[in-house]
Design brief:
InterPro entries: Class_I_gatase-like, DMFA2_C, WD40/YVTN_repeat-like_dom_sf. By secondary structure, the protein is mostly beta strands. The protein has 6 helices and 45 strands.
C-alpha cells in the first residue's frame, strides 16, 4: 500500500505546527510510520507513527533551519516506496546572515510532467495545465537533484545558513530584512511578481543576491486560493489578466505584455542562454567555463588566469547569458537585452553548438550592482553539483564570504597598466602612460584594455571640469613636469595655459576653480583667471582629484582624505583606505585609483560601512521578522 501525502505549507518556522494530509487506495486502516530527515545533513531527526488522514508535526525549536523530507510508509509496504513530502524549516529568528531559498514553485510546476491536465509541462503541449495545486502529492526535487549538491556542501564547508521556501519570498520583505545575502540555488525558474518585487527591493536597499542557478526567473506565475494554487498560462491569449493587468500576465518575464526582462534583477537571461535536453542532457558534462576577468575578487585564490578553463560539469543543462560584444578580446555587456550597465562578465562558455540538442547560446557568469546591493550570478543549473572541483569551491566561498558581510574597500576593474595620471571626460576614462602616451577606455567595471589615443608629453596629472565656464571649456587639463597648466585641444594637441605652482604634482577642478597640490600645500586658481595662491596645508598629498563639489586626496599614509573646495583653510576629513593607490580620479560617485604594479580599481566616494545609526534598519541588517503562516 502506497501512502500519498502533502503538507499544508512548503515551510514553517521553528516552534510552529505543520499539518500533513494522507491518503491511500487500500481498504486497510490508514496507519504506519513516518520518518523525517534533514536533507542537508542526511540525518534522521524524527521517527513517529501516523493513524488516519491527518498527521501534525510540531517542529521543535531546536531543529536547524533546513530542508526536510518526511517519508510515510504503511505497515503493508512490501518494498514499495512510501509517500515523501519536502518542506523547509525557517529560523524563528535569523541565525545567519545568509538565507537560502528552495525553489518549491519550480518543483511544483514540474510535478507530474507530461500527464495531461496535471502539470504545467510540457511547454507547448496543448494538454498542459494552466493551474496546479500545492494540495497534492509530489512537488519535490527532480531526479537530477539540482539543488542538493550545494545544500549538502554548505555545512561541511563551514557555512551555517537559514532556509526558506521560494513562496516565502512572495511579499517577503520582512523576512528578507533579517538577512544580508539571499542565495538562489539550482533551478529556480518560476517567480511571482511578489517574489521578484521583494527581492529587487531587498537588493536595492543594500542586501545582496547570489544566484547559483540557471534558467532563473524565466516564467511569471500567480498565486490564487490563499497561495495554494499556482497559475501559469504561458500564453497571453489564454490569460484573462493580459487585458486587465498586463504586467501580471503569466508569460516569460521578458516577453510581451510583461516586458520586464529578468536581466534587470539578475543580469542575465535564458533568452540568450543554452539548453541541452532529453537524450542529449549528458552533453553538459563536456563543457567548461573560460576565465575572462582573472583579477576579479570572485577568482581570488583560484590560481586561474585569463583564458583558463574551469568547472567542467558545472555547466548545467540550462544556462543563462547576456548579450555582449568582444572589445579588444574582452567581453562587454551591451545592455540591449535589459542587462544593467553595471554588469561585469567574469567567465563565458560558448554553447552555440547546442542548437542541435535543444537551444544554442552562451553562459555568462557575472556580477553587478543593483541599487545599494550586489548581485552575483553563476548562470548555470548544475553549479552546486560541481563543488568538488577546487575552483568552483573557491569561487563559491569568495561569493558567500564577500556578500554575507559589509562590503568594504576597492574592487578591481582593470589590469596593472599603472597610468601616472587619471581623469574622466564624458564616459571615457583617460590615463597617461609612463611613456607619455595618452590612453583611454570606457568607465565601467569590466576589465577593458587601455587604447592608445594620442600623446600627453610630460603630463603628470589630469583634471576635467564638470561644466564649462567663460574662461575654461570642458576638456582634459593637465599638469606637466615643467610646471605648466595645459589643455588638450579637439585635434589632440596641447595648449599651454600658464604656469602652475612650483613643484605641483596634483590637479583638480570643481565649480570652475582649479586646485593644485605640492605635497604640503594646497593652491587655488580662481574661475575667472588670475594667479595661483596657497590656501591651505595639504600634508603628504600624493594624488588629488575632485567630484560633486568636493576635493579628494591620497596622503603619504595611504589614506583618502576629503574637504570642501574653499579658498581658505578647511579641515581634511579621513574617508577610507586608499588601497595602495597613488593615482586618483573620481566620477559618478566613485573613486578610481591605481599605482605602479597595482590593478585599476574603484570604490564608492563614501566611508566604509560601519555601525548603524540609532533608529535606522537598512536591508541586510538583522531584525526580528514577523511570524509567518
Amino acid at each position: 500500500m502506497t501512502v500519498y501525502a502533502y503538507a499544508e505549507s512548503t515551510s514553517r518556522a521553528q516552534g510552529e505546527r505543520l499539518a500533513f494530509h494522507l491518503a491511500h487506495t487500500s481498504r486497510a486502516p490508514l496507519q504506519g510510520l513516518v520518518r523525517v530527515e534533514d536533507v542537508a545533513s542526511g540525518r534522521g531527526v524524527l521517527d513517529a507513527e501516523f493513524d488516519g488522514p491527518l498527521w501534525n508535526l510540531d517542529i521543535p525549536a531546536e531543529w536547524a533551519s533546513s530542508l526536510y523530507r518526511a517519508v510515510f510508509t504503511s505497515g503493508e509496504d512490501s518494498g514499495e516506496d512510501g509517500g515523501e513530502v519536502y518542506f523547509a524549516v525557517r529560523a524563528a529568528r535569523p541565525s545567519s546572515p545568509i538565507l537560502l531559498s528552495i525553489p518549491f514553485p519550480t518543483w511544483q510546476a514540474y510535478n507530474r510532467a507530461g500527464i495531461p491536465g496535471e502539470s504545467l509541462y510540457w511547454s507547448e503541449e496543448p494538454t498542459r495545465a494552466a493551474r496546479v495545486s500545492f494540495d497534492r502529492p509530489g512537488g519535490g526535487p527532480p531526479p537530477e537533484r539540482w539543488e542538493e549538491g550545494m545544500i549538502r556542501w554548505l555545512g561541511p564547508a563551514g557555512y551555517r545558513v537559514d532556509y526558506c521556501s521560494g513562496l516565502d519570498l512572495h511579499e517577503g520583505g520582512e523576512l528578507l530584512s533579517g538577512y544580508r545575502l539571499l542565495v538562489v540555488n539550482g533551478h529556480d525558474e518560476y517567480w511571482s511578481a511578489g517574489m521578484r518585487d521583494a527581492v529587487e527591493e531587498f537588493v536595492r536597499r543594500g542586501g545582496n543576491l547570489a544566484v547559483f542557478s540557471g534558467n532563473t526567473c524565466w516564467w511569471q506565475f500567480r498565486l490564487e486560493d490563499g497561495g495554494r494554487t499556482m497559475v501559469c498560462h504561458r500564453d497571453a491569449v489564454a490569460d484573462p489578466l493580459s487585458a486587465v493587468e498586463p504586467g501580471l500576465t503569466t508569460v516569460e518575464w521578458s516577453g510581451s505584455p510583461v516586458d520586464r526582462p529578468e536581466n534587470a534583477m539578475i543580469g542575465v537571461s535564458f533568452r540568450r542562454g543554452a539548453g541541452t535536453w532529453g537524450p542529449y542532457m549528458q552533453r553538459m558534462h563536456e563543457e567548461s567555463y573560460v576565465v575572462r576577468f582573472p583579477e576579479h575578487w570572485a577568482f581570488a585564490g583560484t590560481g586561474l588566469g585569463e583564458g583558463d578553463k574551469f568547472g567542467q560539469g558545472a555547466i548545467g543543462y540550462e544556462t543563462d547569458a547576456c548579450d555582449f560584444a568582444e572589445v579588444d578580446g574582452v567581453p562587454l555587456a551591451t545592455g540591449r537585452d535589459g542587462t544593467p550597465p553595471s554588469f561585469v562578465i567574469l567567465a563565458t562558455a560558448d554553447l552555440r553548438h547546442w542548437h542541435r540538442y535543444g537551444q544554442g547560446g552562451m553562459a555568462t557568469m557575472g556580477v553587478m550592482r543593483l541599487g545599494a546591493g550586489t548581485v552575483f550570478n553563476a548562470a548555470t543549473v548544475n553549479w552546486g553539483n560541481a563543488l568538488h572541483a577546487p575552483a568552483v569551491d573557491r569561487i563559491t566561498r569568495n561569493v558567500l564570504d564577500r556578500l554575507s558581510a559589509p562590503i568594504r574597500g576597492w574592487e578591481v576593474i582593470g589590469t596593472a597598466d599603472s597610468p601616472r595620471a587619471l581623469a574622466v571626460l564624458g564616459t571615457t576614462l583617460y590615463g597617461v602612460g609612463r611613456d607619455g602616451s595618452l590612453l583611454a577606455r570606457e568607465v565601467c567595471g569590466q576589465n577593458l584594455r587601455w587604447r592608445h589615443v594620442g600623446t600627453a608629453p610630460g603630463v603628470i596629472a589630469l583634471a576635467v571640469p564638470r561644466e564649462a565656464t567663460v574662461t575654461r571649456p570642458i576638456g582634459l587639463y593637465g599638469l606637466t613636469e615643467e610646471g605648466r597648466l595645459v589643455l588638450r585641444e579637439p585635434d589632440g594637441s596641447w595648449t599651454a595655459l600658464g604656469q602652475a605652482p612650483p613643484g605641483a604634482d596634483g590637479l583638480a577642478t570643481t565649480n570652475g576653480v582649479m586646485f593644485a597640490s605640492t605635497g604640503e600645500t594646497l593652491w587655488h586658481l580662481p574661475a575667472e583667471g588670475g594667479s595661483w595662491t596657497p590656501v591651505d596645508t595639504a600634508p603628504g598629498v600624493v594624488a588629488l582629484t575632485a567630484a560633486n563639489g568636493r576635493l579628494y586626496a591620497v596622503d603619504a599614509a595611504g589614506r583618502v582624505r576629503t574637504r570642501l573646495p574653499l579658498a581658505a583653510a578647511e579641515p581634511w576629513t579621513d574617508l577610507c583606505d586608499a588601497g595602495g593607490a597613488t593615482v586618483l580620479t573620481a566620477h559618478a560617485g566613485r573613486l578610481i585609483g591605481t599605482a605602479p604594479d597595482l590593478p585599476l580599481s574603484w570604490r564608492p566616494c563614501a566611508p566604509d560601512p560601519g555601525p548603524v545609526p540609532p533608529g535606522i534598519t537598512p536591508a541586510g541588517d538583522r531584525s526580528e521578522p514577523r511570524e509567518r503562516g
